[in-house]
Design a protein that fits this description.
This protein is an alpha+beta fold. It has two domains: about 60 residues, no CATH class; about 100 residues, no CATH class. The chain has six helices and eight strands; from the N terminus they run E-H-H-H-E-E-E-E-E-E-H-H-E-H. A hairpin with a 5-residue loop joins strand 3 and strand 4.
Length: about 170
């Protein structure tokens, strides 16, 4: 059984639901009908006790929220080549990523910041998909990747258009 600290859950909730009305709606849906003050009081008591959640307790938090389908590009600072990515769900993607444009390149690629308009044709089809992982996929992530996902980030996987070498490492 994988344990996730309650503080990680609270950090996720606080980041995802900064708006008080959305936060209250989320908490009421998954934790019962409580006012914000009642929830804060319970949260403080549980935090003081060091209570932990099991992965089943966060199943709903890891559910796919919304489809996004946003294109982005990355350009490598070493080989100057680029590649296209596609966000399958809403969430945060990294500013920097390994180079997936050139096999064997050890450079770091930087995001183009979701430019407006059509994706650049010279990048071809998206070779990386950013997505909200399932509970099973979440369990296989590294601690850093788990933290990223709990804070609203998306996980990375090679698309069907990716070259075989990208599929092995992405």
């Amino acid at each position: 059984m994988t344990w996730i600290s309650q503080d990680e859950i609270y950090e996720f909730i606080d980041k995802e639901y900064e708006d008080a009305a959305r936060r209250a709606a989320f908490l009421n849906k998954y934790y019962g009908k409580f006012t914000d003050e009642e929830w804060d009081e319970m949260s403080n008591r549980k935090r003081a006790k060091g209570t932990k959640f099991t992965t089943s307790d966060v199943r709903e938090m890891l559910a796919v929220p919304h489809t996004s389908l946003k294109y982005n590009g990355y350009i490598c600072d070493k080989c100057d080549q680029g590649y296209l990515t596609l966000d399958l769900h809403e969430g945060v993607t990294p500013m920097f990523s390994p180079c997936f444009a050139t096999e064997g390149c050890t450079g770091q690629a930087h995001s183009l910041g979701y430019p407006n308009g059509e994706p650049p044709l010279e990048f071809g089809e998206p070779i990386i998909h950013w997505y909200r992982p399932t509970e099973e996929e979440f369990k296989k992530l590294s601690p850093g990747e788990r933290e990223h996902v709990l804070r609203g980030g998306l996980a990375r996987k090679a698309s069907e258009h990716a070259p075989d070498w990208v599929k092995r490492i992405a």
